[in-house]
Each structure stands twice: as C-alpha cells, then as structure tokens.
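Continuing the series of single-chain predictions for the mutant panel. This is the parent chain; the variants come on the following pages.
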Amino acid sequence: MMASDEYISLLTKQWAEIQINFSRDQNTLVDNRDIFSFQFTQDIDGVPYRITNVSLLTDGKFWRSQINRVPV
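Parent structure:
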C-alpha cells in the first residue's frame, strides 16, 4: 500500500519509462453504477504481478480507488 501522492508519482514515472499493458490477462470483475474493478498482469523487475484495481464511483466519477498487486 502507498499514499496517493506516492502512487501518482510512481504511475507518472511508469508511464514515462515503460508502457503499461492493461490488456495482458485482463479481467473485468465488477462494472456497475457504484463500483468498477478490473485485474491485469504486469512484469515488474522480471516478476509477473497480478494487479487489481477497485474504484468507487460517485455521481459517475471515480471517487476513491485502491490498487493491490501480488506476485503470481
């Protein structure tokens, strides 16, 4: 887990250095009015990780998100 500032900094760095492939082993878990969640696999330092994104929506906008990654 990391703070939002740390995550945004890391994500900005990743987008600049590498291309994140959201389509590798992508799976939509939930997609409805209140919540959106999906998973994908990404290699990080040669190790494949399963990354899960869960976002809560309010008034049709992302309100809060949590991202978890585990090695597979």
